[in-house]
Design brief:
The chain has about 325 residues and is α/β, with parallel strands linked by helices. Helix content is about 30%, strand content about 25%. The chain folds into 2 domains: about 170 residues, Medium-chain alcohol dehydrogenases, catalytic domain (Quinone Oxidoreductase, Chain A, domain 1, Alpha-Beta Complex), CATH 3.90.180.10; about 120 residues, Rossmann fold (3-Layer(aba) Sandwich), CATH 3.40.50. Keywords: NADP, Oxidoreductase.
């Protein structure tokens, strides 16, 4: 089968499509034939070496497809089952692969392979952010950066379903309209407006109890200045670059603030935690409370173009690779 591999870190050009031998699954494993593969910003961190992996390596954490072989001792899955995953292990950029059975979620017929491949990592991220890192309650107002991105569009819908008011940052009028169509109550164009000042205006000077920031370096100051006293900054990504040399004294100076840097992999480290998270996500999507926007599709062989477009912020919603 064909799979994307990297032998060195760097730009999109380091990814190559190679022939890979795929054998039979071992004990506790299944073999999955992919129907669609998810593209996520974390994939670029792995490719560039920001998040280090042993080389050579595959890339990708998310895909959906059909079980076509089952290893010894697997009782939860059988051949023909529709499955998806979004928390690795690394290597989803492939036509198929061997997977630990416990890291797969069964898909109902109501959720297509393309939808599943576009939603698992992003949707599971939203689930832990809104339901565990900070448990958003009805009537609260939250700030979510990059509201028109793949994570942002899911987060806006989920937060609205919880009864929250959502303020989202965007980079264009087109993205503002997209975010509002997906449940964002107030949009702030960070290219033209002062984010923190607008948040204060919207909240009557109070600020928000939580800011969800997957952008990183470029939004750190605005995030801190948007929080009310004892508010929580959830820094869960580095789209603009990592935050370096953070002065913890800022947290006291700006109102005894809290800062956390969570990751999905910690929240779904056990198979039980993963099942609970994935089940909630799949139920929300199957019920129609959350719609997944698959706005870009690329052939697996065109993954370099997909990465370039993602890093240039040319994409909206979710992007998938077709094997």
């Amino acid at each position: 089968m064909k799979a994307i591999r990297i032998h060195e870190t760097g730009g999109p050009e380091v990814m190559t499509l190679e022939d890979v031998e795929l054998g039979a699954p071992g004990p506790g494993e299944v073999r999955v034939k992919h129907a669609a593969i998810g593209l996520n910003f974390i994939d670029t961190y792995h490719r560039t070496g920001l998040y280090k992996l042993p080389l050579p390596t595959g890339l990708g954490l998310e895909a959906a497809g059909t079980v076509d072989a089952v290893g010894e001792g697997v009782t939860t899955l059988k051949e023909g089952d529709r499955v998806a995953y979004g928390a690795g292990p690394i290597g989803a950029y492939a036509q198929g692969r061997i997977m630990p059975a416990g890291r797969l979620a069964k898909l109902p017929d109501a959720v297509s392979f393309e939808t599943a491949a576009a939603m698992m990592l992003k949707g599971m991220t939203v689930r832990y952010l809104l339901r565990e890192t900070y448990r958003v309650a009805a009537g609260e107002t939250i700030l979510f950066h990059a509201a028109a991105g793949g994570v942002g569009l899911i987060a806006c819908q989920w937060a609205k379903a919880l009864g929250a008011t959502v303020i989202g940052t965007v980079g264009s009028q087109e993205k503002a309209e997209l975010a509002r169509a997906n449940g964002c109550d107030h949009t702030i164009d960070y290219r033209k407006e002062n984010v923190a000042e607008r948040v204060r205006e919207i909240t009557g000077g109070e600020g928000v109890p939580v800011v969800y920031d997957g952008v990183g370096r470029a939004t750190l100051e605005a995030s801190l200045d948007s929080l009310r006293p004892r508010g929580l900054l959830v820094s869960f990504g580095n789209a603009s670059g990592p935050v370096d040399s953070f002065d913890t004294g800022l947290l006291s100076a700006k109102g005894s603030l809290y800062l956390t840097r969570p990751t999905l992999m910690t929240y779904v480290a056990s198979d039980e935690a993963l099942r609970e998270n994935a089940s909630d996500l799949i139920s929300m999507v199957a019920s129609g409370k959350i719609e997944i926007a698959v706005n870009q599709r690329y052939a697996l062989a065109d993954v370099t173009a997909a990465h370039r477009d993602l890093e240039a912020r040319k994409t909206t919603g979710s992007t998938i690779l077709m094997p």
